[in-house]
Amino acid sequence: MAFELPKLNYAFDALEPNIDAKTMEIHYGKHHNGYTNNLNNIISGTDNEGKSIEDILNSLDLENKGLRNNGGGYYNHNLFWEIMGPNGGGDPSGEISESINSNFGSFENFKDEFSKAAVTRFGSGWAWLCAHPDGKLEICSTANQDNPLMPNGCGGNPILCLDVWEHAYYLNYQNRRPDYIKAFFNVINWEEVNNRLTNK
Ligand code: MN3
């Protein structure tokens, strides 16, 4: 069973003006679709065929650059689309709110630390929020399409991510990555982040 490009739960223009429709169309339809097709071609006929994407990434040989880049690209964008939405933004509520407050002191502190991880990732990559089994939340960032599930990652369960590749923002924000990061907070679907934290 091959991996499929997941259906978007909202229209390309649903995240305007924070993320523009053209960027969404190209990012989802070209970039994510490309990672999906490449991943399927790479695992076809190998031991990885039929495994979950999480299992593939957990047991990844980092020297396998094709699988690393495309398997990561497939997983990362799946999560990215899900944790955003047209009715997003605002302050988190429920368990995620309590967990953010106890791990980072306040939502404002969390925003500062997450934004810093996203701004300071040099070149292409991602910023992450991961939940560890002991209740600890951890912010990390990864290069290219690497992610926390890989053997070189911070581990834990990724519950929030932000794509800081230029393809994610350049049409609308050009070199202004900090403005894009600020806008991202207007479209975070905290309900979905909360579901991931509580494994619903
Ligand atoms: Mn991307």
Detailed description of the structure:
This protein is mostly helical. It has a single domain (20-200), classed as minor pseudopilin epsh fold (3-Layer(bab) Sandwich), CATH 3.55.40. It is 46% helix and 10% strand. It has eight helices and three strands, in the order αααααβββααα. It binds manganese (III) ion.
Largest beta sheet: strand ordering: 2-1-3
Fourth CATH level, the homologous superfamily:
Iron/manganese superoxide dismutase, C-terminal domain
Secondary structure tally: strands:
3
Q: State the helical fraction.
A: 40-55%
The proportion of strand residues reads 5-15%
Small-molecule binders: manganese (III) ion
Structural class: mainly alpha
Examine the coordinates and then state which fold CATH places here, giving the name of the CATH topology.
minor pseudopilin epsh fold
Tally of alpha and pi helices:
8
- Poorly predicted segments: none
User: For the record, what CATH class applies?
Assistant: Alpha Beta
Order of helices and strands: HHHHHEEEHHH
Number of domains: 1
